[in-house]
Structures are given as structure tokens and as C-alpha cells.
Amino acid sequence: MKILFDPRFQIIGAEDFFVSSKKGEFLMNKQLVVISPEDLKKTIEVAINNALLNEQKSTVPIPSKKVLVLNEAAAYIRMSVATFRYYLGKNEIRGYKIGKSWRFFAEDLDQFLKKFLRKTNAEIEMEIDEGLSK
């Protein structure tokens, strides 16, 4: 394996390549990638943007009327299946058992999560003021 260093380029991996110094061209074979720092930056930005777009597509909210099975419901509220079953066993999550499997509406899961919503200091102060004014 030969690696050529040129400060104008970033070399990412090198294997079996040839350099033609007369014309200043790189003849590439197999895994050699020669790229300028500016092109490398653009390539990385495009890759990151594509990855973020794919992530956003996978986290699109589920419509509230959609029916979810247990694993989907746990994933929907970002909870482990074991923890989800714990709350289900305590009847804190509303679900429908059909045969041996469970079904859940996303709307019901949203209501379950709202029970754990923390109030801001402003909301707490407003409640205190309302209580004192009565």
C-alpha cells in the first residue's frame, strides 16, 4: 500500500493507486479517495443533512386515531416495553385487550404522558396567586 501526501488534498483511505506526476493526475484504483478540503466539507454537510432528513422521516408523529400494538405503543412514548407493561399492569395506561394481544390509541398514550408533565415556575406562581386571591 502506498500513500501520497499533498497538503492541498485530504486522502481518505488508500490501496493500490498510481500517480502520474507529469500531468498532475491521480489514477485511482480500488479504495483511494482524493478530495480537496472544501469538497470534503461539502460532502460531509450533505451526508449529515441526508441523515437528519431520514431521522426526521422516521420520527413523524403517528396520527392520534391510529391503533398501535404493545411494542409500537411503548416506542411511541419512548419507553421500554417492561416499563410500559408495568404501567399497563397498574391500569395507568388505557388499552384494549383483544384475545392475547393489546391495542392502544395514540391519543390515550398522549393523555398518559400528560400526567407526568411538569409545571413551569410561572404556572406554579399563577396557581398560588389564584389560590390566594380567592
Provide an overview of this structure:
The N and C termini lie far apart (83 Å). The protein is built from five helices and seven strands. With 134 residues, it is α+β, with helices and mostly antiparallel strands. It has helices spanning 37-58, 70-76, 81-89, 106-114, 121-133; strands at 10-11, 18-20, 25-27, 34-35, 67-69, 96-98, 101-105. A three-stranded antiparallel beta sheet has the order 5-7-6. Strands 1-4 form a two-stranded antiparallel sheet. 7% of the residues are buried. The model is unreliable at 13-23 (pLDDT under 50). Helices cover 45% and strands 16% of the residues.
Count the E strands. Answer: 7
Unreliable segments (pLDDT under 50, ≥5 consecutive)? 13-23
Which structural class do you get from the secondary structure elements?
Answer: alpha+beta
The averaged pLDDT comes out at 76
Which descriptor suits the 3D outline? flat
Radius of gyration from the alpha-carbon trace, in angstroms: 28 Å
Q: How much β-strand is present in the residues?
A: 15-25%
How is the quaternary structure best described? single chain
Biggest pleated-sheet summary: 3 strands, antiparallel
Helix content: 40-55%
- The DSSP helix count reads 5
Distance between the termini: 83 Å
Cross-sheet strand order for the largest sheet: 5-7-6
Q: Give the ordered list of helices and strands.
A: EEEEHEHHEEHH
Key words describing this protein structure:
single chain, alpha+beta, three-stranded antiparallel sheet, flat, 134 residues, 7 strands, two-stranded antiparallel sheet
